[in-house]
Write a structure and sequence with these properties.
2 domains; Alpha-Beta Plaits; 4-stranded antiparallel β-sheet; Globin-like; rod-shaped; alpha+beta; 69% helix
Length: 351
């Protein structure tokens, strides 16, 4: 599996040798610039500690920079890093290793919270100090005015080259952070959408479900019956509708209270759900009236279902003399009544 942590920053940014050379040409960096830097390397090395101390003394005059650096250990590490950078700057070698070091600087500065303005101010301050070092080298009689001016130009080119590399990873880290935040937001939106869809479906189910029995309610009953009747007609298949109410239920409520009556109704719901198939529908039409829609079944199969319902209901003791009055009607497979034509005879009979 690909692991980005196993690649250098240069490899991650596809900084090949060819691309590095293209970038050097873009900033007009030539072998002459390398020779100009190497020519004063010895002088820079002699004054390196003095240069670094001066740089950070000036930096720490600003409270904002003090807050970013934070403590003595961090300051010590930064000074060591600055010594290494200055030596690399005047080494005359600007290869993939040098490039990767500059890219890491950008990543570290982003990580510790150095703003672009602070970084550019620091680069400007360093350039001023280094130019002063170049001038002192010239004043000591070690080079001509023409040579020192050429070295200043080379230094400026290299510093700008380094700045662009630093910001390559600095801005890259910002873009990566934005992309990560966007991905996180998208995941959150997807999760939220799924949660909302789930809650919406749950509310929809609750609006179609009888709270006491767990069966479909009257509204859902008619929706299912219309759909199942249309499917049966399209396939030339039978469909049976079973309608029943509870005998003695009113007496039960009067003698034992509505709590007992609710327990009986809940038990009816359990029995129906345990008896019907996955393609069937069981509904509480209202009060003590119930329906079963049995797609693909004829009256003989519906009779068997009714018998199992009665047996399971009566198997539980203490039903207080409640029994069923049941009716069955078949639609199809040849002729199909409307929904009202199928339901109305039951309503008339049982009421």
């Amino acid at each position: 599996m690909f692991n980005i942590a196993e690649l250098t920053l240069a490899e991650q940014l596809k900084m090949t040798e060819r691309r590095i050379e293209e970038r050097k040409r873009l900033f007009n960096i030539t072998d002459e610039d390398a020779r100009n830097m190497m020519a004063v390397k010895g002088h820079i090395e002699i004054h390196l500690d003095e240069l670094v101390e001066t740089f950070y003394r000036q930096q720490l005059e600003f409270s904002e920079i003090q807050l970013v650096i934070g403590d003595a250990d961090t300051l010590s590490r930064l000074k060591n890093s600055m010594r290494g950078y200055i030596l690399e700057l005047f080494s005359g070698t600007y290869d993939a290793i040098y490039i990767n070091s500059r890219l890491r600087v950008g990543k570290v500065h982003k990580r510790i919270g150095v703003s672009p303005s602070l970084y550019m101010a620091a680069v400007n301050r360093l350039m001023i100090l280094l130019n002063e070092m170049l001038e002192s080298h010239c004043k000591a009689g070690n080079c001509s005015r023409f040579e020192v001016e050429a070295r200043k130009v080379s230094l400026s080119r290299l510093l700008m080259f380094d700045v662009h590399l630093v910001f390559e990873t600095y801005t890259g880290a910002l873009v990566a952070a934005v992309e990560m935040a966007q991905q996180e937001l998208e995941r959150y939106a997807q999760d939220l959408e799924a949660t909302v869809a789930k809650r919406t479906q749950e509310l929809k189910d609750l609006s179609r479900q009888d709270g006491l029995t767990g069966l479909l309610n009257q509204r859902a009953f008619f929706d299912h019956l219309r759909t199942d009747l249309a499917n049966a007609k399209r396939r030339d298949e039978p469909l049976t509708l079973v309608y029943f109410d509870l005998n003695g239920f009113k007496k039960l409520n009067d003698q034992h209270g509505h709590r007992t009556g609710d327990q009986v109704l809940a038990h009816v719901g359990e029995v129906l759900l345990a008896t019907i198939r996955e393609i069937d529908s069981a509904c509480r039409y209202g009060g003590d009236e119930f329906c079963m829609i049995l797609p693909g079944s004829q009256i003989i199969q519906a009779n068997d279902v009714c018998k199992r319902v009665v047996q399971r209901f009566e198997a539980k003791a203490g039903q207080h003399g409640v029994s069923f009055s049941m009716g069955i009607s078949q639609a199809g497979p040849k002729t199909f009544p409307t929904v009202d034509e199928l339901v109305n005879p039951f309503l008339t009979h049982f009421q």
